Amino acid sequence: MAKPTGGLKPFYSALAVLAVAGIGVLGYLMSRQKPVSIPANVVVQLSDTLGFRGYLLGSDSAPIEVTEYADYQCPQCGAFATIQFPDVQHRLIQSGRVRWRYRDFPLSQHQFSRLAAHSAACASDQGRYWPQNASIYQGQIDWAMTKDAGGVFRNYAKANGLDLAAYDACMTSAKFAGRIQASYDEGVAVGIQATPTFMIGGRLYPGNMAADELVHVVDSLAAVKH
């Protein structure tokens, strides 16, 4: 009778290799960040707005306040943020002439706009709102068409020095969904119909305003006040 060659060692070795590979795949799947979604049309609680009226930049004593209603996935908002806003910051905000107030107005046709707004809100929780805001707008062309915008935003958070454990917990909890909804509701109440729209001196200015145009409006208001 012929004896089998090699015994069962090759079989058990193969099983061991498969087991190790399976553990590796399982570990990879468990380590991946689960997709996060931020609900819309939530009921706004008092705690969502208490002590918060927008993301502010500039001196509290600035004579004029400009409110920007914007959507992170809006191309015109992205163009304003990356091209015009740096000039606006230099000429109007850093000079003490204007205090800037940013309000989220996420449009329903943009699937990642609330997620982006929430990412920036979670960064604000750690005192890094404006760097995250800038990163999201600067990378708009990259994440707007991706399947995992949340992962891109997390990379921005890491690059901007955020505590990622706290950031992940903030995103997963959707703790600022009500704040974003309240901001949107405010925009609807004042008549916002498109993004970006700027409120200056009680008047709405829709569209991507050039820095020169903003300076002109501020100059006109300052002249009236004097």
Give structural notes.
It is a single chain. By secondary structure, the chain is of the alpha+beta class. It has one domain (46-225): Glutaredoxin, CATH 3.40.30.10. The protein is 54% helix and 11% strand. The protein is built from 10 helices and 5 strands. It has a 5-stranded mixed beta sheet with strand order 1-3-2-4-5. A hairpin with a 2-residue loop joins strand 4 and strand 5 (203-206). Helix 3 (75-93) packs across helix 10 (211-225). The radius of gyration is 24 Å and the shape is globular. The relative contact order is 0.16. Residues 1-6 and 25-31 have low confidence and may be disordered.
Q: Under the CATH scheme, which architecture would be assigned?
A: 3-Layer(aba) Sandwich
* Beta-strand proportion: 5-15%
Q: Determine the N-to-C terminus distance.
A: 112 Å
**Sequence stretches where pLDDT stays below 50 over 5 or more residues:** 1-6, 25-31
- Walk across the major sheet and give the strand order: 1-3-2-4-5
Helix amount: 40-55%
